[in-house]
Amino acid sequence: MRTLPIALIAICFGVFAQAQTTTEITDRNSWLKFGVNLGAPVSDISNVSSFVGGLELKGQLMETPHFGIGLTTGYNHFFPKENAQDFGAVPLGAFIRVYPGPSGFFAGLDAGYSLITGIRNADGGAYLKPQIGYHNYDWNIFGFYNHIFRSDANGAGIAHLGLGVTRNLRFN
């Protein structure tokens, strides 16, 4: 079960490694994305957490007008239910996005490693975050599923469904 997320992450990073052409980074093809998200814990974590709130920061490079790649980080806070402990997750990853048009539908995947904060001796794990949504020149609005893969011995996986919005901050 654990080999599937590791294989998917390896494929994502392998795609990036295969790109051998040089792309000039300009204000027309690269920008930062800053945003917020809210979600509901699913699976076993829903027994101890009532909702999730987070921040996102991404750096994106458009390889073509319809395909973007980049790096992502942020913070997701899992708010506790009564008599439970709150904790956080800090994702460190890469992402790909497919934009069929200059505005409208998009699909993407974030993949990497997520650190767990606020719980003593807690191990993080590989994560996948598929997304679908709407985009235009300035905004992205999307739904997502975020899963952090951890062994049962380390507290099992951590997953949540959510909605997010990011603002494109262009370089001048």
Task: Give a description of the structure.
This protein has an eight-stranded antiparallel barrel. It has one helix and eight strands. The model has no long low-confidence stretch (mean pLDDT 88). The chain has one helix at residues 3-18; strands at residues 30-42, 49-64, 67-80, 87-98, 104-117, 125-135, 139-149, 158-170. It is globular. The protein has 172 residues and is mostly beta strands. The chain has one domain: Porin.
Class, according to the CATH hierarchy? Answer: Mainly Beta
What's the end-to-end separation, in Å? 45 Å
Read across the widest sheet, the strand sequence of neighbours is 1-2-3-4-5-6-7-8
Helix content: under 10%
CATH fold-type name: Porin
Give the number of helices: 1
Spans where pLDDT lies below 50 across 5 or more residues: none
Structural class: mainly beta
Instruction: Indicate the proportion of strand residues.
Output: over 45%
**Largest pleated sheet:** 8 strands, antiparallel, barrel
Q: What's the multimeric state?
A: single chain
**Whole-number average pLDDT?**
88
Identify the overall geometry.
Answer: globular
The run of helices and strands is: HEEEEEEEE
Total strands: the figure is: 8
Signal peptide: 1-19
Protein name: Outer membrane protein beta-barrel domain-containing protein
Keywords: Signal
Organism: Haliscomenobacter hydrossis (strain ATCC 27775 / DSM 1100 / LMG 10767 / O)
